[in-house]
Amino acid sequence: MSTVGDLAKVLDQLGAAEAAEIERHLRAPAVNALRLWRRDEAFRRAARRLFPDVDDAAGPLDEALARYATTGWLRDQHLNKLPNDANERRALLFAILRESDGVVIGRKQISNVLAGRRKR
C-alpha cells in the first residue's frame, strides 16, 4: 500500500467492525492522515455532485455547509448514518461534517482542498 488513499479504499471495503479494529491499531499520525484524506474526498465528492457546472465550487459549498451546520447537523450529528430517504445534498454535507468531527473549515481552506493544495 503506497498512500493513505489506498488504505482508506481497503478499509472502506471491509465491514465497519473490521475496519474499526484495524484503525484502532494505527498510530495517531496515520489516523489523522486517514481522517483528513476522507474529509478531503468528501469535499471533492460534494463539489462534483452539488456544483458540477461551477468552476470554483468553494464559495457555494462553503455556504451550503454553513447552512447545514447550523440547521440539519444539529439534528443529524448523533447519527452514524442518515436514514435511507435522506436526499443527496444532505448526505454529502453530512459526510463532510462526519469526517471533520463537526468542524466547519473556511472558504479558503475548502478552495485549497478542492484544488489539492492542502499540505499533506
Q: Can you offer a commentary on this structure?
A:
- The protein is mostly helical and 120 residues long.
- It has one domain.
- The longest helix is centred in the N-terminal third of the chain and has 23 residues.
- The protein starts with a helix and ends in a 6-residue tail after the last helix.
* Continuous helix count: 7
Structural class: mainly alpha
Low-confidence residue ranges: none
Through-space gap between termini: 17 Å
Topology:
Elements: H1 4-13, H2 16-24, H3 28-50, H4 58-70, H5 72-76, H6 88-99, H7 107-114
Supply the key terms.
mainly alpha; single chain; 120 residues
In short:
This protein is mainly α. It has 7 helices and no strands.
